[in-house]
Amino acid sequence: VAFVICRSLEGLKTFSYLEELILDNNLLGNDLLLPKLPHLHTLTLNKNQISFQRNTCKILLDHLAEVVPSLQYLSLLGNIACPNELVCKDKDEDDYQRYRYFVLHKLTNLKFLDTRKVTTREREEALIRGAFMKVVKPK
């Protein structure tokens, strides 16, 4: 196993049968573009630079829904988009749960998000309210 910091994801298009992809610690942002990877079921993007600025995270999640339709496990821990009270002191469990609803609204096939299994109740809430969960708390 070799660990390499990515500068370009261009070469991934030759691996159309790829099932797992770990892109942790690569300074990747919301402009991440993956080629169509129909068999990819696991994607980790931990500790990158993905945020909820403007509509860019929505665009990224829409892109993932299109190019990785088999995605079942996604991890975004350590990104600004993933509000975690251990990383950011002004975030709490409610912020994290709203984030989960929003992501699950966009990526309906996920079975795991970050380190937690997606529950039936979460999936139902995501269908009903997920589109509105991108709201940030006022300071």
From TrEMBL:
UniProt source species:
Edolisoma coerulescens
What InterPro entries does the database record attribute to this sequence? LRMDA (IPR043313), LRR_dom_sf (IPR032675)
SUPFAM superfamilies, alphabetized:
L domain-like (SSF52058)
Annotated protein name in UniProt: LRMDA protein
Recorded name of the encoding gene:
Lrmda
One Pfam family hit: LRR_9
Give the matching PANTHER family: LEUCINE-RICH MELANOCYTE DIFFERENTIATION-ASSOCIATED PROTEIN
GO terms classed as biological process: melanocyte differentiation
